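FAQ

Q: What does a record look like?
A: Structure on top, sequence underneath. For example:
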């Protein structure tokens, strides 16, 4: 009768633990899309790089402004004193106060295309910076994805360790009951006690890891991970590795940014060579001076063309061209490196996904076999054919199998989204997140004509900056 009572209690504990392991980790709340939206809306890193993009937009406006004349004015007011005489005799003494206004304009008419090369260089830099912003966006969203999945994994781990502790507690009570009726020795009880103590330690470690995962989630998403919906649906996968690589080479922002930087470097070389050529500028100047206190005045005006060319700078002119060419070569090397890195990242992510899927499939069979083995050994133990150590070892194997299963499931999800990011597709627009997508062209369209401070467009820019909270 004692054997049957112990068996029933042990079976009831195992059944309860198994049912608890099948229950969802959290109630319906945030899903992965919610986490990505939170990360997109609250990321300081995105705000920083959006501001850097506006810096590039203004650099383009500055390049455009060089096509226009430069106008300066000066106002001077001064008093002069003069005195003349013979010996100690002062024959005349006079003081005058003069007010002078001068306005001048200088307009470069020809410069061998240097300004236009500068404009194109600035344009390509803007396009490269836009791609850099997309790269940062991918980093932010992938970090949020990893944080979300890690919270789910660690919550599952806490569940498993908690269930394991309950099962081992049942086994300890069963061992104690058997010891009380003389079926097992004190050694069996001590083994069960040791496993229970170890399970408590493992549960404490899992709970600490879960707290760390939740802290990472809050840092990335901007709010606490109180309840998460569960494992997300996996994104669509490419048909083959070659298809994934081809898509990445066409779309990845790192490659596109490097391509634009090569184009910018090419324009910089052309601009440096144009700087060796002569320039022609139109100069206009007008001034007026009034002697306060008398009727004296003067007015002057001039207009003329000025051609200039620097002939010698101690080798600096040729060095500037070679420097631009070296920077172009460096940009070409960076492009080649970016392409190879992206291809390697796609290969790594693709292989990781395939391996994780194989591991997940194998983990189901491992859990099934471990469960069958545990159930059989447990029943044999109730009949005295198995020792307490056998039961504990079988339970540990089942725990390891279930742990490997939840790890494989999380690994598959992380690998799937890593592959999406490796192809350059992990952006708010492509994921169709319900957020106001940042428009990189909006600010550029306002500044690309280099509006003056008194223009309507400049006032529009002021309002934009106020909404951004930057002014």
């Amino acid at each position: 009768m004692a054997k049957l009572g112990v068996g029933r209690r042990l079976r009831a504990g195992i059944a309860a633990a198994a049912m608890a392991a099948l229950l969802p980790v959290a109630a319906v709340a945030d899903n992965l899309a919610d986490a990505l939206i939170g990360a997109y809306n609250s990321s300081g890193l995105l705000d920083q790089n959006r501001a850097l993009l506006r810096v590039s937009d203004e650099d383009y406006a500055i390049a455009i402004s060089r096509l226009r004349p430069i106008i300066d004015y000066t106002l001077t007011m001064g008093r002069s004193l003069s005195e003349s005489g013979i010996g100690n005799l002062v024959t005349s003494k006079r003081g005058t106060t003069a007010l002078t206004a001068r306005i001048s304009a200088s307009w470069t008419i020809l410069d061998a295309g240097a300004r236009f090369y500068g404009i194109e260089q600035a344009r390509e830099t803007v396009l490269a910076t836009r791609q850099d912003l997309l790269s940062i966006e991918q980093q932010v969203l992938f970090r949020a994805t990893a944080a979300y999945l890690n919270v789910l994994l660690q919550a599952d781990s806490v569940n498993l360790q908690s269930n394991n502790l309950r099962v081992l507690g049942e086994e300890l009570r069963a061992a104690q009951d058997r010891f009380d009726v003389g079926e097992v020795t004190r050694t069996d009880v001590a083994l069960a006690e040791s496993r229970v103590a170890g399970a408590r330690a493992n549960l404490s470690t899992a709970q600490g890891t879960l707290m760390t995962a939740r802290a990472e989630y809050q840092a990335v998403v901007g709010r606490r991970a109180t309840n998460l919906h569960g494992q997300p649906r996996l994104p669509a996968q490419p048909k083959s590795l070659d298809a994934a690589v081809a898509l990445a080479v066409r779309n990845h922002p790192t490659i596109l940014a490097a391509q634009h930087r090569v184009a910018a470097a090419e324009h910089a070389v052309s601009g440096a060579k144009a700087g060796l050529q002569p320039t022609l500028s139109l100069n206009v100047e007008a001034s007026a001076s009034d002697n306060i206190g008398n009727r004296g005045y003067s007015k002057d005006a001039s207009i003329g063309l000025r051609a200039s060319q620097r002939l010698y700078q101690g080798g600096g002119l040729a060095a500037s061209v070679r420097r631009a060419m070296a920077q172009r070569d460096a940009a070409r090397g960076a492009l080649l490196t970016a392409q190879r890195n992206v291809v390697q990242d796609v290969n790594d992510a693709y292989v990781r996904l395939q391996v994780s899927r194989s591991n997940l499939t194998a983990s189901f069979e491992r859990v099934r076999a471990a469960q069958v083995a545990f159930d059989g050994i447990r029943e044999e133990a109730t009949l005295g054919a198995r020792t307490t150590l056998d039961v504990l070892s079988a339970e540990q194997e089942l725990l390891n199998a279930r742990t490997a299963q939840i790890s494989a499931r999380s690994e598959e999800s992380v690998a799937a989204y890593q592959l999406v990011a490796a192809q350059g597709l992990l952006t708010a627009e492509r994921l169709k997140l319900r957020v106001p997508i940042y428009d990189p062209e909006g600010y550029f369209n306002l500044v690309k004509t280099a509006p003056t401070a008194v223009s309507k467009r400049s006032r529009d820019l002021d309002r934009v900056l106020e909404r951004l909270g930057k002014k």
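Q: Is there anything notable about this one?
A: The chain has two domains: 2-79+94-438, 439-471.
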